[in-house]
């Protein structure tokens, strides 16, 4: 795998995700450990300072899978709001924690459930709560 790209997380997302980690047993939900690692390496900004091209919680982004060229629009959500058929990806899913904090143009390798890895490239952030003025969503 390549070096991990720099990521940016809002202080509100950081606080809410830290609370989620604290109340979710890592033994039952393996994604907790990956999310914790992502938060540890993140640059944290106030919501009002968040650049519009960064994937934050509840953001909708368009990504391309470099392995097959597939382009998908995904919304990064909390576990209770996940709905794969609607493109709503849980932050505790491997791809969810991998996308958190990425900016347009950045790419990240992430593991596939069947083994191996694929590379996702962020093509656009189509909607972001902070950019829409929803600073406490």
TrEMBL record:
GO terms for molecular function: DNA binding; RNA polymerase binding. It comes from the Bacteria. GO terms for biological process: DNA-templated transcription elongation; regulation of DNA-templated transcription elongation. Residues 51-125 form the Transcription elongation factor GreA/GreB C-terminal domain. Residues 5-44 form the Regulator of nucleoside diphosphate kinase N-terminal domain. InterPro entries: GreA/GreB_C_sf (IPR036953), Rnk_N (IPR029462), Tscrpt_elong_fac_GreA/B_C (IPR001437), Tscrpt_elong_fac_GreA/B_fam (IPR023459). This is Transcription elongation factor GreAB. It comes from Crenobacter luteus.
